[in-house]
Amino acid sequence: MESLLTRGDRVVATVWHADVLGELGLGYGDRLRMVVVDLTDIDAMRRGVDAACATMGRIDVVVSNAVYGLFAAIEEVSDAQIARSPRT
């Protein structure tokens, strides 16, 4: 993301917590927008896309880098554990 910003692109970053990008957001002004989104909430994701379009006009590229690790044998976890990631 930083290389995109450095070359002049505009980026909308979806994050779980507003402070997750730290000081990265300070140097890029209106070229970087952060939208807090719970990726397990479909309505929140739709609001995030709407916010990105409202802010930037359109979306040219989507990069999905969402990660959730659940370390257990498949027979040891419930459907709820698989379907929903924990908040940290």
- Bin the helical content: 25-40%
- Total tally of structural domains: 1
Q: Which architecture name does CATH use?
A: 3-Layer(aba) Sandwich
Low-confidence stretches: none
**Mean pLDDT over the residues:** 78
Largest sheet: 2 strands, parallel
**Shape call:** elongated
**CATH-level-4 superfamily name:** NAD(P)-binding Rossmann-like Domain
What can you see in these coordinates?
The protein is an alpha+beta fold and 88 residues long. The protein has a single domain (2-83), classed as NAD(P)-binding Rossmann-like Domain (Rossmann fold, 3-Layer(aba) Sandwich), CATH 3.40.50. It has 3 helices and 2 strands. It is elongated and about 50 Å long. The two termini are 22 Å apart.
Give a summary of the structure in a few sentences.
This protein has 88 residues and is an alpha+beta fold.
Core attributes:
88 residues; Rossmann fold; single chain; elongated
How are the secondary structure elements laid out?
Blueprint (H helix, E strand, L loop, with lengths): L1 H5 L4 E5 L16 E5 L5 H15 L22 H5 L5
Parallel strand pairs: 1-2
